[in-house]
What does this fold into?
Amino acid sequence: MKRTLTGDIMMLAATMIFGAMTIFSKQILAELEVFNMVALRFLIAFAACYAIFHSRYRIMSRELTLHAGILGTFLFVSYLCMVVGCKYTTASNAGFMMSLVAFFTPLIIWAMDRKAPGIRQMASVFITLIGVGLMCLSADFTLNKGDMVCILSAFFYSFQMIFTERYAERHDPVVLGTYQLIFVSVYGFIFSLMLEDGFTLPQSAAGWGQLMYLALGCGALGFILQTSAEKYSSAGHATVVYASQPVFVAVFSYLLLGEPISLRQIAGIVIVFAGVLITVKPERGQEDNAGKCV
It folds into this structure.
């Protein structure tokens, strides 16, 4: 149980960091084109991680490179969908759609491994999504093209989290979590050169601040925490914690943009954390098998 709790704390910290991602991603598009921003963000993130952890990169393998490339591909497609979706929908709606990772992940695992999710996990997902819906959705909510693209982002990110769990047991999670970033950056550079009008840098201090948060906060620290967390906790378990991301989106929107938090949103926040606690709390008898928790 102690190992699982450690993973939950790491995942919650990563989710809190990711909470400002949709806000800053939406803002920085006023200065940079999409692929340009992706290339810069993940290059800076990888460079910072390599400068700190370069000694851990001495032991490399073809398998590690392959696995990092797979994770980087899923991450690139997911993040691209999220950024494009944010151009056509609100940050709160994007946060709700991204929380659908908690819905997709157990279904994908079920399809891949023929392993049905447990009753507690599905109840936790259901309760969490109700809370997120109260926070994010208006009474006349309808799906627009931005919402649909964000749903695709959640779908691809589910694969990223599933394979992160599987690969983290076979490699140094810090190296795996940071190595994938260079693949995302390379994809960004290639598509930027093919589809966009030249490569540029942010033109304002605010733009550089947003880029640095996305690179060093979300890109470096966030993915180190997520990859390390999934070494201790299952992907299905971690995604329920990740589903609390809209809570932090709402908090950062209040602190950074001055957007008010309504009573309905507060009720949604309480329900979200109730759903998360259901999956975090050990079932009867698990305490006696704490050493077996992975």
Summary: Confidence is low (pLDDT under 50) at residues 282-294. Residues 93 and 142 are 10 Å apart (CA to CA). Residues 205-232 form the longest helix (28 residues). The chain is about 75% helix and 0% strand.
